[in-house]
């Protein structure tokens, strides 16, 4: 079993779905596919170049995000995930699972996607790229989740595992890196959640913040290496100090 692509799903509440979709279209320079699904609840954000890796869903319990792993053998991937401690929730052409810590994800058939879209140059001069999914993990679950995701994807754990933020090595061309964040002891979450990270390094980050505010987002908190934002649908995400071109923090 091999992971060949990854898609971030933005699961947005019905009443704020149009505003959320319009926001993400604007800041990623994408256009919306035709709706699909029994109730037209799914759609893809289509980039001008490269292959799509962002999708949206009308979701009653949103906002949240989930991950689709595109694999060369769905049944084998699902069996592997269950053997590693995941729980199978639903099966069709794809399989819906929950990680040992409760994070919902899907294994889906390979659709042939291989070309990572380029960063986006915004109207104020900012340069940015959605390129990371950060799993927010309660401290008691970190070791098991880290082992699970590394074993499932085949992506090695990198860096010092005692640190708060530990990434998995991203294969060349993969549009999404996985970052594992250990939550503080004062965080009340009992299960693993996730948020989107947008790379916007250096002085560009202030420009990108302004561009996102222009589209209806709001600043939640500012830190030295990232800015926490909330989109018009209520989804919290981060603008980080990593280069949208290289994915690393400039020295």
TrEMBL record:
Quote the Pfam families the UniProt record gives: Glyoxalase_6 (PF18029)
The Glyoxalase-like domain covers which part of the protein? 15-108, 132-240
| Gene3D superfamilies linked to this entry | 2,3-Dihydroxybiphenyl 1,2-Dioxygenase, domain 1
InterPro entries referenced in this protein's UniProt entry, alphabetically = Glyas_Bleomycin-R_OHBP_Dase, Glyoxalase_6
Q: Where does the source fall among the domains of life?
A: Bacteria
Q: What is this protein called?
A: Glyoxalase-like domain-containing protein
What lineage does the source organism belong to? Answer: Bacteria, Bacillati, Actinomycetota, Actinomycetes, Micrococcales
């Amino acid at each position: 079993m091999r992971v060949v692509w990854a898609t971030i799903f933005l699961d947005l509440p019905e009443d704020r779905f149009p505003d959320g979709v319009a926001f993400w279209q604007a800041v990623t320079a994408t256009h919306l596919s035709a709706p699909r699904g029994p109730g037209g609840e799914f759609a893809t954000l289509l980039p001008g170049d490269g292959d799509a890796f962002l999708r949206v869903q009308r979701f009653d319990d949103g906002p949240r995000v989930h991950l689709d792993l595109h694999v060369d053998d769905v049944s084998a991937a699902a069996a592997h995930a269950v053997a590693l401690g995941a729980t199978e929730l639903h099966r069709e052409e794809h399989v819906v699972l929950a990680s040992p810590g409760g994070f919902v994800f899907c294994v889906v058939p390979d659709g042939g996607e291989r070309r990572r879209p380029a960063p986006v140059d915004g109207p104020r001069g900012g340069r940015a790229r959605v390129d990371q999914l950060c799993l927010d993990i309660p401290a008691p679950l970190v070791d098991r989740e880290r082992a699970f995701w590394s074993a499932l994807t085949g992506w090695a754990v990198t860096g010092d595992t005692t640190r708060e933020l530990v990434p998995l090595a991203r294969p060349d061309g993969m549009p999404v890196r996985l970052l594992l964040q250990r939550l503080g002891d004062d965080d009340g979450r009992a299960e693993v959640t996730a948020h989107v990270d947008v790379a916007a390094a250096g002085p560009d980050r202030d420009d990108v913040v302004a561009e996102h505010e222009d589209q209806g987002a709001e600043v939640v908190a500012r830190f030295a290496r990232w800015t926490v934002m909330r989109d018009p649908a209520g989804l919290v995400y981060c603008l980080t100090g990593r280069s949208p071109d290289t994915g690393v923090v400039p020295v």
